[in-house]
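Blinded run. Sample ID left blank on purpose so nobody reads anything into the name before looking at the predicted structure. Input follows.
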Amino acid sequence: MISKLDLNIDPKALGKVAVLMGGDSSEREVSLTMSGPGVLAALLHGGVDAHAFNPAERGLHELKAEGFDRCFIALHGRHGEDGTVQGALELLGIPYTGSGVMASSIAMDKIMTKRLWLADGLATPRYVKLKKDQISRERCMAIPDELGLPIFVKPPHEGSTIGISKVMGYSQMQDAVQLAAQYDDEILCEEFIDGPELTCPILGEGDQAFALPVMQIEAEGGNYDYQNKYFTSTTRYSTGTLSEEKEAEVRALVLAAYQSLGCRGWGRGDVMLRKSDNKPFLLEMNTSPGMTSHSLVPMSAKAAGISYEQLCLWLLSQARLDGKA
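Blinded prediction complete.
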């Protein structure tokens, strides 16, 4: 796996680098205190002229004024991985890590992502979309009849399980929808797929993109929520849990999902493996994954023989603008 990456990177050739962290999304704490500092420390240790930069405290125009040559985006959530900061960097002419404007915007919208995947014949759970003016009790009570129970109710433009509820009965629907509506103007009601939760990182672009090892997630009580993602040590992560054939199938599915959205640089696809027939279903694509001690991409990369520092340096070396190699 490591042979697929050119790790002979001259840190001095990367220029002056801003590690964008913090921001103003609901996930800013993780970015500011965990992902961002981790990336910054790795780049500095690797000999890069890297500096922390919080867009919530400083205007992005200062990046140009201060002579930054490229940016490592360690922001999560809105205004970080939804195409907005990418668009600003495009206007400034400063190359950045990860997907471009359109792919970032689409991947941040779980409903639009599903539409594209379904159009390309990729399996994803059935869903119902609601708008805020459609959340009457009668409409909410009808959704379990359409999708069955349990149901996941989500704000489709948030990440890290923010505002998500697992609905076990009709009486919980209204509260779940109201919670999601606090974070978004739309609500995604999604069929529950019963089985193991998997995730698979992708590195690269186009035909050169490839999948890292698939990881299985086992959270305490089966609830891989915000707390279990970032702030507990009880969640178990493992590779090598699938047969060779199923591992290859999941990797191929996530790679196709990544390419379907036009992603580049890196990403991480989340998958549920239905235990009744062992069929994988795509949940979402993360275009600015976490880089914390609990994060899945670094753990999968490590299983492939790629260190955290090597991963950060390689991602930074791939920074570019839309339409430019």
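Unblinding after everyone has recorded impressions. The chain has eleven helices and 13 strands.
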